[in-house]
What we know:
With 231 residues, the chain is of the alpha/beta class. The chain has 6 helices and 5 strands. It has a domain at 62-181: 3-Layer(aba) Sandwich (Glutaredoxin), CATH 3.40.30.10. It has helices spanning 92-107, 122-127, 155-166, 178-182, 195-221, 225-230; strands spanning 62-64, 81-87, 112-117, 135-140, 143-147. Strand 2, helix 1 and strand 3 form a beta-alpha-beta unit. The chain crosses the membrane at residues 195-213.
Amino acid sequence: CGAGSGPAGSPGQGGSQGREQPVLETVLPAPAEEPNGTDSAKAPKVNCEERNVTGVDRFTLQILNVSQDLMEFLNPNSSDCTLVLFYTPWCRFSASLAPHFNSLPRAFPTLRFLALDASQHSSLSTRFGTVAVPNILLFQGAKPMARFNHTDRTLETLKDFIFNQTGIEAKSDVAVTKEDWEGPLPSVLTKGMDWLLLFSLLFLASFVMYATVRTESIRWLIPGQEHEHQE
């Protein structure tokens, strides 16, 4: 769970409290996010094919379970766009983001929204550079095009990010509701082990141990070092 500032409060607030710097890295080819201003009139950075929503009554987020592969939901031969959230249920920043992310499908019904537990999909986390959660990537087809890198993770900043990247405007009447705080993405923390952090610590410990052993081996190979050690 990476540090960062995110929305917090009760279901009736939907605001943000407190500010902490997130741990995010820029590994995608897309340029850094621009402020929402006069530059927003420029051509979109990602030309998304908007899906047909005729006959669709309910727009909601889909959460992948442990047996589902993200690649099965992303069509490499398509130009449609999907916003994917990597989260963990015991990360407080993921929990505070949840109601805002839950409301996005209603704001952008022609786009798709997926979420997956990073601890259950470690190979995907490694593949897409998820060293901290929550991590939000915009995909076109099966290719990651941009990473959300704002310090405030609210419905408004998420809407600005999508608009600046795709040129698609959000529906103006969408707001975070009580139902968004209830699901589908959980806004209540659950106890669990942060496997990403544990893996990072184990890797670091193994590297330090390996470096120490290698250093001692080299010292014994240098003439005169063994004599100094014996004295």
